[in-house]
Write a structure and sequence with these properties.
Bound molecules: fe (ii) ion
Shape: globular
Number of helices: 11
Distance between the termini: 28 Å
Mean pLDDT: 97
Helix content: 55-70%
Largest sheet: none
């Protein structure tokens, strides 16, 4: 799979620029996790990049979200492991997480939103000075960025990461593409 082709397909299927940024952030963190665990960086990164490609196409129908995405990913040449991770990231389908790729995508998905929200309440609204400790503090405030599912983020333990380390990796990975994220 060619990343440029994948990006082109995302741009053709997704209008919401914030959703595209979410997929880019997910890709960046997935790449960092793949490097950390000595997994296939391209496979993990493109899984993150593609995982929500069907959100607008399925128009809020959680029963079809990620089923269509997995099909589209397969059509683009994704491996079965990538398609499975995309399918399983929507808990609604009740598909068990079978391996580290499935688990990594699942806990990374909501982390991006928490980090974005923690950045946007800073005076400079920049990722640059954001510290893991302040994101951790926000993590514990239930009403802050309530859409960022805390239980799901905490499942980083399933891939062998402590929460503070996971948050730190997430910030660093997103900081490396801060311009693309506009943060
Ligand atoms: Fe997502």
């Amino acid at each position: 799979m060619d990343r440029e082709d994948v990006l082109g397909s995302i741009q053709a299927n997704v209008e919401n620029q914030n959703l595209i940024k979410h997929m880019l952030a997910t890709e960046a963190i997935m790449r960092a996790l793949a490097r950390r665990f000595d997994e296939d960086e391209e496979e993990w990164g493109l899984t993150g990049l593609l995982h929500d490609i069907d959100v607008e196409l399925t128009d809020g129908d959680m029963g079809s979200h990620s089923k269509l995405g997995a099909d589209l990913a397969r059509e683009m040449g994704a491996t079965e492991a990538m398609a499975h991770a995309i399918l399983a990231h929507n808990e609604r389908h009740g598909i068990p997480h079978e391996n580290r790729l499935d688990r990594a995508l699942f806990c990374t998905d909501p982390l991006t939103g928490l980090i974005v929200a923690a950045t946007l309440v800073r005076p400079d609204r920049k990722l640059d000075g954001l510290e893991a400790s302040s994101v951790l503090k926000r993590f514990k405030e239930k009403s802050f960025a309530a859409g960022a599912n805390r239980e799901q983020i905490a499942r980083c333990c399933d891939i062998g990461l402590e929460l503070d380390e996971f948050i730190e990796m997430g910030i660093a990975a997103m900081r490396a593409i801060a311009d693309d994220l506009g943060l």
